[in-house]
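Propose amino acids for all 749 sites.
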């Protein structure tokens, strides 16, 4: 199957405020329950006596080829745009025609056809699609239709296809085609959800053709997901996939797409797939669902290049292009239609059992949470059993008035963790503790995490920092900033062994909690986590899964589907999580025991792409989840804080985060007023003062160079003072990515 998301739909948690739906377990390749009704047999009924549109009269622009209907319904009128051309296949130049209908079956060509083209007798207008809402209804913007299409010069041997757009008031007179927006695009389908544009299209850069997904904030600049979301992998499919059409009904994305039929020469057919997130698709087991009709000479061999719409009565209508049997000169020959009424086949999707808010009490919630946590832990590959920590103390240093202990302990067989623990010199009583989680390239010697450990310890807390998998003393050569766990090959090997990289990162953090709980000086009821970027993602997973923590600071990260376009270590687990839960569900898993602060910069283009749309969606998610926390007795359980004009910065050190820690864990060495009155220092100036070089991507005033940090007169701890391993231990398999991979691969055989 294809690991590739679901926008928030009613769930169990929302019952605490509105209504509650309980979902079944879904992870790995198991078919999500919500998709099963849609993968029942589809019975498409042709309800016309012949084509709804045939080739044009001799001499007209569409007298030889006609295909790719794009249909919308507005004011009880169906508008169908299609591509037509004249002449031999090698001489084709497609232009756009328009036809209208009152019932979707009997169409009349517009008298001014063709209504659109490049008018250079070279570039073809191909595969038009109009902007639609998720359910397939047309959306006007500023009162205009907005259309995207592919274009190519069919005589060009390079075969380059480019994406363009145009607008129109009436669907007849269109603006000039835009400049190319994206290369290698054919047959796009585009919907708008919230403020985001979602596109699925055929990538024709190389064979075999595949279907990709892309997103945009304006419909012009597109971000393409790194992996195809649909490829040829069913027995009937041959050579290429093409013509995706996507609609979304009841929280389910549905795609009809076509392929050549492997066992039927000169034939295409249309298949179906369903998805909860638009990226990971489950193909219909009975594909193709729409097949040629041998008894209809006008569609005996091709049924593809389709447009699909759900009608007000709940049925679906498809418009498609067809071709007759050989011999023929027509690439496509006619346009036709069919209707599918799911209720006739018992396939009408059923919502999950509703539970009233009065019934959904704390005990019920905890049962639901326990189920979801179990499924997520299985999905991540977090081990059920834990081996002894076998902790070894490797000395300590005193620095900036605090003590830094050095340790090595075991996470799992053949996987040991170098760690440093910052703490006050002479704590009077058991103290709270924070575990730092690191971002991409981060480790215990990186300046912001060293700064954070020193700050927390000066507030009277303990702070544990372990090198992440593949970084610093868990790197083969002991290098910093390596991101050695990032490559696809590493994620693939871990996944094949039923482990995910994120699961390993989270499990190591859980073992850090085990380590803290073995100490006599740590208060077991006051432990939290904090991290930035990838570290924010880890902190979020800890909040969702770890019952022993009381607060989590999730910095430089979003509870939003935008993270499905990140690196493999974060993308894969979130894709699979989203098949099980909405983001509101995920955010609520920490309730009511662990408070969550999501701290971000409003101008963090690394996450938000610069238009605040991600943050707006996340604010709504947090607001909904906050109601769940309140219903469960935690009125301040989750909230989002944003720094105006701030970028990708270490917000877990900001005074706002320190106030959160004070409120939920306590800061024995400093009062809330003292925290608020702390002077501040610019991070860039502090780093320059101490000779610290910042990474090129993040070392800008918008990001790390512009952070506002509490100023305690700190000096960075030299890296050698934080070293936990002996020289001959460096590169040992028990500390490296490769060593861990070999261990889990051995166990998976």
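Proposal:
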């Amino acid at each position: 199957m294809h690991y590739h998301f679901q926008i928030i739909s009613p769930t169990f948690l929302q019952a605490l405020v509105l209504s509650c739906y309980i979902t079944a377990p879904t992870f790995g390749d198991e078919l999500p329950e919500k998709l099963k009704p849609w993968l029942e047999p589809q019975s498409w009924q042709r309800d016309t006596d012949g084509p709804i549109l045939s080739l044009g009269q001799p001499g007209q622009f569409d007298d030889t080829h006609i295909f790719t209907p794009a249909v919308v319904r507005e004011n009880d009128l169906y508008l169908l745009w299609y591509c037509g051309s004249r002449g031999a296949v090698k001489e084709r130049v497609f232009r756009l025609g328009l036809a209208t209908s009152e019932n979707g079956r009997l169409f009349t060509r517009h008298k001014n056809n063709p209504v659109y083209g490049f008018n250079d007798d070279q570039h073809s207008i191909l595969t038009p699609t109009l902007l639609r809402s998720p359910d397939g209804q047309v959306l006007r913007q500023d009162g205009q239709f907005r259309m995207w299409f592919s274009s190519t010069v069919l005589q060009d041997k390079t075969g380059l296809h480019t994406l363009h757009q145009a607008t129109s008031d009436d669907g007849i007179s269109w603006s000039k085609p835009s400049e190319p927006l994206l290369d290698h695009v054919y047959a796009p389908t585009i919907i708008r959800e919230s403020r985001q544009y979602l596109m699925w299209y055929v990538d024709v850069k190389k064979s075999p053709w595949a279907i990709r997904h892309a997103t945009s904030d304006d419909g012009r600049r597109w971000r393409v997901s790194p992996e195809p979301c649909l490829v040829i992998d069913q027995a009937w499919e041959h050579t290429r996939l093409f013509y995706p059409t996507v609609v979304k009904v009841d929280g389910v994305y549905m795609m009809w797409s076509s392929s050549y039929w492997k066992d039927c020469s000169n034939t295409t057919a249309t298949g179906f797939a369903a998805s909860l997130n638009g990226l990971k698709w489950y193909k219909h087991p009975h594909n193709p669902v729409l097949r040629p009709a041998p008894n209809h000479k006008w569609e005996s061999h091709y049924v593809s290049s389709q447009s699909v719409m759900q009608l007000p009565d709940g049925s679906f209508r498809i418009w498609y292009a067809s071709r007759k049997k050989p011999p023929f000169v027509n690439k496509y020959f006619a346009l036709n239609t069919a209707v599918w009424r799911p209720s006739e086949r018992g396939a009408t999707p059923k919502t999950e059992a509703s539970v009233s808010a009065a019934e959904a009490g704390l005990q019920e919630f905890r049962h639901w949470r326990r189920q979801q946590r179990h499924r997520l832990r299985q999905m991540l590959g977090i081990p059920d059993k834990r081996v002894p920590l076998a902790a070894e103390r490797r000395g300590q240093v005193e620095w900036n008035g605090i003590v830094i202990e050095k340790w090595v302990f075991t996470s799992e067989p053949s996987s040991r963790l170098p760690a440093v623990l910052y703490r006050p010199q002479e704590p009077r009583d058991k103290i709270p503790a924070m575990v730092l989680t690191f971002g991409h390239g981060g480790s215990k010697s990186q300046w912001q995490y060293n700064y954070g450990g020193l700050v927390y310890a000066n507030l009277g807390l303990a702070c544990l920092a372990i090198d992440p998998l593949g970084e610093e003393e868990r790197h083969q050569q002991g290098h910093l900033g390596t991101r050695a766990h990032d490559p696809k090959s590493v994620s693939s090997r871990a996944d094949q062994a039923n482990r995910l990289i994120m699961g390993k990162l989270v499990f190591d953090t859980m073992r850090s909690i085990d380590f803290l709980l073995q100490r006599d000086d740590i208060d077991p009821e006051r432990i939290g986590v904090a991290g930035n970027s990838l570290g924010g993602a880890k902190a979020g997973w800890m909040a969702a899964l770890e019952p022993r923590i009381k607060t989590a600071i999730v910095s430089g990260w979003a509870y939003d589907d935008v993270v499905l376009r990140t690196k493999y270590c974060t993308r894969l687990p979130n894709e699979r999580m989203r098949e099980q839960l909405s983001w509101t569900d995920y955010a609520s898993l920490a309730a009511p025991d662990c408070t969550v602060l999501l701290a971000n910069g409003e101008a963090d283009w690394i996450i938000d792409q610069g238009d605040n749309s991600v943050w707006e969606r996340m604010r709504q998610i947090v607001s909904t989840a906050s109601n769940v926390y309140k219903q469960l007795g935690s009125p301040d359980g989750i909230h989002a804080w944003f720094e105006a004009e701030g970028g990708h910065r270490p917000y877990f050190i900001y005074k706002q985060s320190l106030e959160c820690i004070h409120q939920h864990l306590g800061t024995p060495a400093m009062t809330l007023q003292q925290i608020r009155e702390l002077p501040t220092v610019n991070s860039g100036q502090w780093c320059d003062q101490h000779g610290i070089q910042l990474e090129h991507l993040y070392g800008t005033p918008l990001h790390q160079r512009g952070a506002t940090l509490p100023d305690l007169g700190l000096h960075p701890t030299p890296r050698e003072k934080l070293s936990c391993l002996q020289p001959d231990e460096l590169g040992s398999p028990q500390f490296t990515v490769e060593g861990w991979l070999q261990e889990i691969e051995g166990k998976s055989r």
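The chain has two domains: 24-345, 367-748. Confidence is low (pLDDT under 50) at residues 1-12, 14-28, 344-359.
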